[in-house]
Input
Amino acid sequence: MESHELTFEPDDRYNAFLAVCKKAPYGKGKLSGIAVAVKDNISTRGIETTCASKILKGYIPPYDAHAVELLRHAGAAIVGKTNMDEFGMGTTTENSAFGPTLNPCDTGRVPGGSSGGSAAAVAGNMVRMALGTDTGGSIRCPAAFCGIVGMKPTYGRVSRYGLIAYANSLEQIGPMARNVSDVSSLLQVIAGKDRHDSTTYDRPYTHTPVSGIKGLKIGLPQEYFGEGVDPRVAGVVKNAIGRLEELGATTVSCSIPSMKFALAAYYVTCACEASSNLARFDGVRYGPGADSKKSWHESFKEVRRAGFGAEVRRRIMLGTFALSSGYYGKYYAKAQVARENVKADFARIFSEVDLIAGPTMPSIAFKLGEKSDPLSMYLSDILTVPANLAGIPAISVPCGKVDTMPVGLQIMGRHFDDERVIDAAYAYEQAVN
Amino acid sequence: MAEDQVIVGLEVHCQLDTKSKLFCGCSTDYRDDGPNTHVCPVCLGLPGAMPSINKRSIEYAMKVAKALNCTVLHESEFSRKNYFYPDLDKAYQITQYDKPLAEGGYLEIESDEGGERRIQLTRIHVEEDPGRLVHMGNAERGKYSLVDYNRAGIPLIEIVSEPDMRSPKEARKFLNKLRATLEYLNVFDSDKEGSLRVDANISIKGNERVEVKNITSYKGVEKALTYEVTRQKNLIRRGQQIERETRHFIESTGITQSSRSKEQEHDYRYFPEPDLRPMQVQSWVDGIVLPELPDARRERFISQYGCSLNHARTLTGELKLANFFETVVAADPKELSALAATWIADTLIGELNYRGMSLDRVDAAGITELMGILRNGTITDKSGIEVLRVMLDQRLNNEPVETPAAIITRLNLGKTTGDNTAIISAIEEAITENPKALEDYRAGKGGALNFLVGQVMKKTRGKADPGELNRMLVEALKKREA
Output
């Protein structure tokens, strides 16, 4: 029962929130009274949910996403909905129809994306915890850029029911907070099987982090420290890994050859799925209505042309093309083969190591407007996308700075080894704090 | 013959009669309720909602697959069929594409030449029904449509046949047999409006094939295909080419109409539904216990009740009819079966069709009683028909219902055995009124006797037993001779 009320009036100078609940009800439980922000692509009953898109302006879901329901049951106060790249399509939160979110560490820079609003709300001390979603790095990237902890759980560990789908086969809801313990607490609440999401597994997460990394073997993929990665970022991350070695971990160099195709496989897959997921936004049921005087094709074309931003339209068109008859085999089917190869590479490496570590992002947070060319933006996802393609758990934990901007250490684990990933991040965090 | 051989294949969509929808818990019992009252985030396709498979739907579909001798695949999966239409709330239909639930199989029908014919099946797959558009206003002005999503998410199976049928009549028979099988399996309710929809592929051997869509009734299939056969043969006769196209059947006029080809150039961009895992249900097949199916019941009706092949076929061709027959004869199968088979298969069905009346409204006990009376020979067959008609009309018009005995008494339809005075006087009258017939009879013209029988029958309103009447008439004629 949500019998209490939290007053929430943040000084949102970073444009982290799209909707704020000034009086947020909460109840008893593990997270009783804790302010939790929720990314705006996660359905919240009675609270406008737009995915930062004009096409969903005014849409108030009649139901809670499963993860939100679990948060409420745990007593959390849902205090607002956070800004994001429209439908999750971006790496900077600049693709929001409602203006970009700024990075609390440097307001001239982007917070990363697409869960930039959630990251800024946490990093800017407006909330203690937030939910993000991660399709190709959308939790880990903003966590790294804003200097907080963010985790993408194993695919199937957290229900996606109520998450407005962008790329179903890749994305997961995950926790974001200022420290590993809070990330772990949030994951405890949201993980587990949901009968509404048949891709979930009966793998609840009941773990409390312990700092024990002694004797673990960590793989360091050479691709994560090579071409395209800012050497200063690579340096900071190598130092952090040094700390893990001091704590008793051993490291071994490894390679993920399939990474050559990872980005292509990722962008083909997510564009295909998105083209289908986003087709329902036709002005008939919600969002700005269609002009009923016009013919059906005319009116829904108009709604979609006006309602979607440029990046969303680009990915819809790419996905539509890639699924067209005659091209399916060349693109979608091939992308799935590449995806299997990535999975196989990880399986091979994980037969010899317990964890894989490297930088979360190849650089520090970009300046606002710096990545105007979509392709160069896509390239910055190269280190986060593999975990989504393989469905494995991955965390980003702050590990130092370059030019006063935070750098994230990414730690990946085997399927359903979320506990070990959290323990490793916790060990590092405890050692440096 | 072979020159203009007709080739027909069918794609039959049937709603499975489950309690809840295919991918959510909404009730399927929507027909008497207002629009958009049986909906939830899942079947409305609200953002973020996800499908989860209703196990019962898959079990129902597998029952059908087993009954139709199909092979359930080791792994099957759902795919998305993408297209824009306002009745399709997600802008894709969750269906099965390259990994259907089951493949192969066959259904046996009675061929036009008599005997059994095996119609091979291609596949059976499971999919969700879209919503329904209700068109308001008219084409000239104020035309708009409303959408009702009550139907969205109702489980459908699509049964695809090989092009094995050779006439519109065979197509109709295939459909009837399929309906009977689905009803026997208790997975389908053919009485529900729109529970069956058919697309038909039809060609004349050596020519392009035409797809006819939008057939929603059993009779419609034969009608649409008969129209197409004539249309296509006429084109060929005039030396024209048959175009490969899709045509729509217009139920009200019984014709097919070409769909504008541009609207047909769909590219559905199928890909696997990422929100559902592939299904591995082959192992369930062994656990499915099938009930007695139409063919087995037909054979049993022949051996157990001594029905003729034709009667057995008719009676078992519909589950309700077969059950009705067995209820009627249950009290005394030995005495009633032969009589009831004829009366139900021939007379009752005819009378019901004439009235557009459903068998559901007929009281089996009343028919049993009537059969008993007929069996005892206390009324003539002609009177029996009259009693039956009264019984049906009373039910149809919601009038007070009488037993057959009461009707017989009220209308004085009992055979006049024992009391022959009425017949004797009728005979005397008939002979006196028709001196010519008497003359002809004396001259040895056989037709005269029959004529006089007819006259007497008329006068006694059919109550006289024909055998008895004949005997008495001959006697009376002999008397006059003397």
